[in-house]
Amino acid sequence: MANIQDYIEWRGDLSFEQTPFCNVDALILCQISYLNFDRLLPDYDFNYSQKLSELAELFENAKDFKKRSETGLLINKKTAPFFLSLAKCRRFENILATGYVSKIDLSIEEQFAAISYKLPDGTNFVCFRGTDDSIVGWKEDFNLATETEVPAQKDAVEYLEKAAKNLKGKLRIGGHSKGGNLSMYASAIVDKKISDRILCIYNNDGPGFYEARVQSPEFLRIADKVESFYPQFSIVGMLFQHIGKQTFIESDEIGVMQHDPFSWHIMGNNFVVLENNDYGSKFFHNTFNEWISNLEPEKREIFVDTVFKIIESTDAKTNTELEANFARNSVKVLKTINKLDPEMRKVCKETVIEFFKAGHSQLTKADKVIKQKLEESTEHTKNILKKLTEKIFRK
What we know:
Elements: H1 4-11, H2 23-32, E1 49-51, H3 52-61, H4 65-69, H5 79-86, E2 96-105, E3 110-118, E4 124-128, H6 135-143, H7 151-166, E5 171-176, H8 178-189, H9 192-195, E6 198-204, H10 211-214, H11 217-222, E7 226-231, E8 245-249, E9 266-267, E10 270-271, E11 273-274, H12 279-294, H13 297-312, H14 319-324, H15 326-338, H16 342-365, H17 368-376, H18 378-393
Parallel strand pairs: 4-5, 5-6, 6-7, 7-8
Antiparallel strand pairs: 1-2, 2-3, 3-4, 8-11, 9-10
């Protein structure tokens, strides 16, 4: 089945006049936002713009091209060559990139990056990067469960305000993973004059928000502009509650690996759409949200801080570093767990138990059809776990 690579091969010669900007184009621009354009584009400068064809040439000819092409453990390694290919296509070559910014601040546990695109149809696409390879980026994701506003969300609002001030015309906002969350958050929080200029908000498998947040006037104001896209077995996108239209897409990957946009199936200029997501994905969504809503805020914070205290004991700054020294890091992790304060250990144990209780609760609430489907998927789930283990440990 075709994916975004096939899309640029088959439809890359079609201009936006021939075929208007679509959901697949949005996903593609979100994917290339994971690349390192440091020093190739002026930092946070909307007065300077570069054609994607020219940016790709600078990227490929950079002395540190090999390092720039490394996207880490969890972002598809095809992203850099994919960018070089699409930048040669008639459809994408003249898109202007501007307003690039990327930063990591360990002191406030923030990973934030964004880039804007001036499209040939006169609109602009403001794109927020999802979680990269950094450990601090993942810590900030987990902080979504403990804080009302994480630093990247605050920066996303400021970025959108500056983009709106400097970019003429209508706005499209989007992102993949955490980038999707930032897109919805920034679009809701900015002044109404800005949100009125927004045509569409593309949330590609990004986590949502607490129920109170999605029911707030700010979020309800933009709900009809939100288009959320999830793979059939979504995990990341099933965290918390969502607003707007939801579309489920066929994927050729397994389990959580479906988070990778390269695995999403495409037909023509659209995704291969399913009626609904998998039963396992629904079950996880219901279990997680029951668990997080019943968990005391203090327990949430202790649990998240403890998990990352254990990870940080390895001194790894990225997931790649964590995986590269797996044996040594495992020893460090075990030593740290053994040294944990008894109270922290107790809270973590109770938190995990609460998650399994929520799962049991959801299972008892499920109707006969869902129970049957879950039972039928037991062997399938075992196979998924086996394949994931083989991938992770490269057996």
